């Protein structure tokens, strides 16, 4: 009998700050208990899982869809990221512009994902402040980073994409920080309050009849005749089709073993800033700055519509194939405190209210795992750093495959290569973390 067993369950240290600052909510649905049946079971209720459920709902409105998550909505990485839903590829790679076709194809797909999310915001009445199409700035704090921004801007011009270069004074007027030499503004990114968006998506799906069971870790699923029996700690669902949208925990179920880079990222969030602190800070009430060097520091300023006047700082990463980054959080918090003070000396000494780790999954060759993995089992996992837009796409892809539907999204993932095999342990972990530390050191000012 074919059986998939979850060898690890999600365990993320620290408080998911984005979720904490918008208050408690009545449970989406109680944990799964007893035995039931469904037309589709979606495992994982992050960006990918909830997008899969919405796409299933669109394609087969009468189908019974059950979504199971080990945590509460927005407590996992979906509520632990920086909330940039980015339309452009992170890295416009092709030096000679030969890759312009690929860049534009990926950009079109990302924009499709943003439109899909935007339609859900409309339909489900999700607060506009949780989905703000404000664009973002790539900040440069060194000459090398500034040069990178200029080359990126050249490529954008070649693609006919809009952008604006900001000088140091404009960056200070925006952020209140003298840290940046320049910035590259691009308009297509949506700034999410990620927990607000995810909770809103969950609530809308429930109203449409989707059953979402929180605190329902799936311990495994096995063949039962032509169906699968999906087991949680307290119950089971028998279904012909299973959708795995569990991020890097795909490997916990034995799929793509030895091929997924289990990366953990960290972030800290200030307490609500008082009037005096806001006066010292200066700048605009709402903005987001990503680093020109991807190993640098992301900073966001949010306001009362998004959970209070606060600053969120994200940097430091660690590869943990054992899926537990708890030991890395204290060092990460110290580093992030320093990065915060480098940018905002006027707020030096401020104690952060929240600090957390979250999970993202990469492959060596940058591909996703969005495909059928067994008869009636589909994966919508692995986002390679752009999990909000890409997660939406991989979720849609898995749902469409499960319904036998083809689209530009399924065709895009169908021709991707398989994930490349990683070096064996312990070399993988030691080698990758040494490279990460070196790259973080090189990007220390960004
Ligand atoms: C600090 C940080 C900053 C980031 N910033 C950004 C950003 O600005 N923009 C961006 O695009 N991406 C960002 N990311 C990445 C992004 O958060 C992830 O890529 C994204 O959450 C992936 O979506 P997902 O739905 O695939 O996975 P997840 O959001 O992780 O959802 C997977 C779900 O599966 C559940 N699960 C796992 N195993 C089981 C099981 N056995 N049973 C039941 N449920 C299970 C988990 O509880 C989880 O809810 C960031 C990540 C971090 C950590």
Describe what this molecule looks like in 3D:
The chain is α/β, with parallel strands linked by helices. It folds into 2 domains: 3-80 and 195-259 and 365-420, 3-Layer(bba) Sandwich (FAD/NAD(P)-binding domain), CATH 3.50.50.60; 131-191 and 262-363 and 431-442, 2-Layer Sandwich (D-Amino Acid Oxidase, Chain A, domain 2). Helix content is 32%, strand content 25%. The chain contains 11 helices and 22 strands. The chain has helices at 17-20, 47-59, 100-124, 143-159, 168-175, 194-207, 275-281, 329-343, 387-402, 408-414, 427-442, and strands spanning 3-5, 34-37, 40-43, 65-68, 84-85, 131-132, 136-140, 164-167, 182-186, 190-192, 211-213, 218-224, 227-232, 235-239, 241-244, 261-269, 287-291, 298-302, 310-319, 354-362, 369-374, 377-381. The strands form 4 sheets. The chain has an 8-stranded mixed beta sheet. The chain has a 6-stranded mixed beta sheet with strand order 11-4-3-15-22-21. A 5-stranded mixed beta sheet has the order 1-12-13-14-2, with no helix packed on it. Strand 18 and strand 19 (310-319) form a beta hairpin. It is globular, with a radius of gyration of 21 Å. It starts with a strand and ends with a helix. Residues 93-100 have low confidence and may be disordered. Residues 6, 9-10, 43-49, 68-71, 76-78, 80-84, 217-218, 245-247, 249, 265, 267, 314, 358-360, 381, 383, 386-389, 391 line the site of flavin-adenine dinucleotide.
